Amino acid sequence: QVQLVESGGGLVQAGGSLGLSCVASGNIFNINVMGWYRQAPGKQRELVAHIFSDGSTNYADSVKGRFAISRDNAKNTVHLQANSLKPEDTAVYYCNALLSTLSDARTTRLYWGQGTQVTVSS
User: Phi and psi of 74, rounded to 5°?
Assistant: First the structure.
């Protein structure tokens, strides 16, 4: 069993900052990629940022220069520092991880957290 649990969401004023964290736990062998997605009401889920096991990253254009993703491989955690927040950043933020488990180290699967709400007031 693998679980991803997010924390750190909340309500913040425009221009403010929030830090989101996600911890992956369970029968984990190796995590290739960890990332954050978000889904606003009435919209499709969209990529925010990814970070690979070598530390390389990619970001959605809408958050470049404002958000920073980081990762602690030893603790199976990923963080998202969101700065200069805008009302349009309001969404449920989901963590995901592409990983293999101890019971099947040759197969990678994508796992998702339950999401954490981020609300940015104007």
Answer: -65, -30
Alpha-carbon separation of residue 118 from 12, 48, 86, 97, 100 (angstroms)? 8, 13, 11, 20, 29
> What is the reported pLDDT for 37?
98
% the chain with pLDDT above 70: 100
> Residue range 87-113: average pLDDT?
97
Task: Specify the DSSP class assigned to residue 27.
Answer: S
Q: In what order do the strands lie in the sheet with 77-82?
A: 2-7, 18-26, 77-82, 67-72
DSSP string, 72-100: EGGGTEEEEEE-S--GGG-EEEEEEEEEE
Query: CA 60, CA 72: separation in Å to the nearest integer?
Result: 21
Q: Which region, left, alpha or beta, applies to residue 76 given φ > 0 means left and ψ of -120 to 50 means alpha?
A: left
Neighbouring CB atoms inside 10 A of 16's CB total 14
The mean per-residue pLDDT over the stretch 60-72 comes to: 98
